[in-house]
């Protein structure tokens, strides 16, 4: 790439990203409603897909055009434009995270939406490392190694997080049945998450058992199936090879709760004759 071509490209990139940032600020921070026909799901997806392209574009551009020791990498104006562009990329990541947060607030939390949060965090870290690579005049090998280290540390940290319990707790606490706002709880999805979701489902059934909703057949069927699931789970845990610290904690919580009781159907009071 020639110096003039790189300079023109950076100017165009910064203008385009500034326009996108202004649009995001209008809807995310300005409190303006989305256009008619545009759902929060589509709005979140439109933020996630360009993020992939911009991340690859930013990394590829820096690796190809700003090689250590080249004339472009030492040009003060080009370096400033790259810093501004990378900063706008980070702002775009923040906007995408806010879009996803709005999406989750309406459609609840899932594994894929958590994965999207993790991905956006990695993109922000990668963009920050690109800035560090330029400022510290490191090599492309350093940038690649730093990104691999960040990815490894993220995966290692995620291995200690009980995402099933996290999803179940969030969805129950923010469900329409518990708060009167949002969407109704997809308790069949939570059941599919496995034993880690049971404490949250117990709280949900206990709450519903104190209302007229206990007579709804789907709740009673859920409680019955959870009882069967728990019996199978306890039978499997009798084998010492199945022991894990997470399962041990879950069994303690289940023992304190006691056996799962199917909520009785609601019986309306009969007037005295």
Provide key terms for this protein.
single chain, 273 residues, mainly alpha, 11 helices
Total count of domains: 2
Order of helices and strands: HHHHHHHHHHH
Secondary structural class: mainly alpha
Termini separation (Å)?
94 Å
Shape call:
elongated
**What would you report as the Rg, rounded to the nearest angstrom?**
26 Å
User: Which residues sit in consecutive blocks of at least 5 with pLDDT less than 50?
Assistant: 265-273
Number of helices: 11
How many strands? Answer: 0
Please give the largest β-sheet: none
Helix content: over 70%
Beta-strand content bin:
under 5%
Any overview of this molecule?
It is a single chain. α1 packs parallel to α3 and α2 (40-65) packs antiparallel against α3 (76-107). This protein is mostly helical and 273 residues long. The model is unreliable at 265-273 (pLDDT under 50). Helix content is 72%, strand content 0%. It starts with a helix and ends in a 16-residue tail after the last helix. The protein folds into two domains: 3-158, no CATH class; 163-257, no CATH class.
Overview in brief:
By secondary structure, this protein is an all-alpha fold.
Task: Give the arrangement of secondary structure elements.
Elements: H1 3-29, H2 40-65, H3 76-107, H4 111-135, H5 140-158, H6 163-173, H7 176-179, H8 187-192, H9 198-209, H10 217-237, H11 245-257
Helix pairs in contact: 1-3, 2-3, 2-4, 3-4, 4-5, 6-9
């Amino acid at each position: 790439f020639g110096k003039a071509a790189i300079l023109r490209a950076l100017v165009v990139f910064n203008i385009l990203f500034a326009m996108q940032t202004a649009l995001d600020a209008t809807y995310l921070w300005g409190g303006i409603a989305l256009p008619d026909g545009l759902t929060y799901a589509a709005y979140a997806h439109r933020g996630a897909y360009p993020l992939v392209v911009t991340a690859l574009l930013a990394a590829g551009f820096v690796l190809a055009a700003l090689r250590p020791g080249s004339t472009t990498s030492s040009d003060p104006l080009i370096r400033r434009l790259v810093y501004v562009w990378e900063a706008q990329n980070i702002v775009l990541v923040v906007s995408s995270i806010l879009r996803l947060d709005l999406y989750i607030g309406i459609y609840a939390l899932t594994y894929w939406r958590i994965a999207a949060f993790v991905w956006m965090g990695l993109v922000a870290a990668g963009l920050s490392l690109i800035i560090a690579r330029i400022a510290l005049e490191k090599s492309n090998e350093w940038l690649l190694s730093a990104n691999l280290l960040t990815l490894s540390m993220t995966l290692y940290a995620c291995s200690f997080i009980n995402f099933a319990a996290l999803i179940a707790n969030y969805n129950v606490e923010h469900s329409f049945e518990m708060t009167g706002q949002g969407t109704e709880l997809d308790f069949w999805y939570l059941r599919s998450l496995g034993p880690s979701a049971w404490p949250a489902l117990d709280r949900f059934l206990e709450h519903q058992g104190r209302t007229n909703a206990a007579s709804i057949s789907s709740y009673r069927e859920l409680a019955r199936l959870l009882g069967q699931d728990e019996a199978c789970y306890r039978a499997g845990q009798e084998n010492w090879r199945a022991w894990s610290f997470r399962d041990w904690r879950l069994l303690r919580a289940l023992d304190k709760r006691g056996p799962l009781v199917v909520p009785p159907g609601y019986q309306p009071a009969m007037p005295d004759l």
